[in-house]
Q: What sequence folds into this?
DNA sequence: CCTACATTTCGGCAATTAACGAAATGAAAG
DNA sequence: CTTTCATTTCGTTAATTGCCGAAATGTAGG
């Protein structure tokens, strides 16, 4: 599959776009994302691997947790173009993204996890 | 479904992106697109309705044929952003799009249709 | 009117996808 | 070395999607 199509497929899901917008606020671990999206942890992990394969995010282990980061330094032109589209203030102006961003500020992995 | 997600879904298919790149060359009728993509005419019609619902193209009848046009004047910010992404010369640099563009120049609806 | 014919709609089939819970993984801490 | 626990992988299910051929649609020309 062409890279550009893989990228569009990665963004063609509302939960995955929400994840990217949340990671714009700060890096998050799986259980923090799970809490905000209210999905099964295995489902979130699957979404994250699709975003990783598309080159949009990367992960890095930190003690118990796996932190996920936006791959802002990815030199791929298509990834850069889609990032600037995602951060365009005229787009993705839905209340859901603002609500998610607020919750990102509040969530605390030490209280969430060990479910 | 949010408009932006609908747009990403519309672009998350290789044949639909090929259609948009072909329409960049000139307006086309369904049977011309069918010839180049080598799909059933009903399948092409379905792809076109998805692109139309996303606001990326529009159609207009001309005698026997229905011509499809890029909706270049669509004021929607997301549509405009995706168009400039599609026309970015660093992206969609695959040979398939060049080959399609050449075929668009050659196809003649008067010879193709009446199948 | 009636016919011709490009296109759309419909019904069905195979493949893909998003979701879940359960089991496996693997690393840190005791 | 064993336990703990966040995460990933696996197996399954329901819903969606891409594709086709056949039937319906609708319009232009006779």
A:
């Amino acid at each position: 599959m062409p890279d550009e199509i893989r990228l569009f497929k990665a963004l063609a899901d509302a939960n995955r776009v929400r994840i990217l917008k949340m990671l714009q606020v700060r890096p998050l671990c799986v259980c923090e994302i799970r809490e905000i999206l209210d999905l099964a942890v295995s489902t979130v992990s699957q979404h994250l691997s699709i975003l990783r394969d598309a080159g949009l995010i990367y992960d890095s282990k930190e003690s118990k947790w796996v932190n996920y980061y936006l791959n802002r330094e990815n030199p791929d032109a298509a990834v850069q173009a889609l990032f600037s589209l995602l951060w365009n203030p005229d787009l993705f102006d839905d209340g859901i993204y603002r609500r998610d961003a607020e919750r990102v500020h509040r969530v605390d992995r030490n209280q969430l996890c060990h479910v």
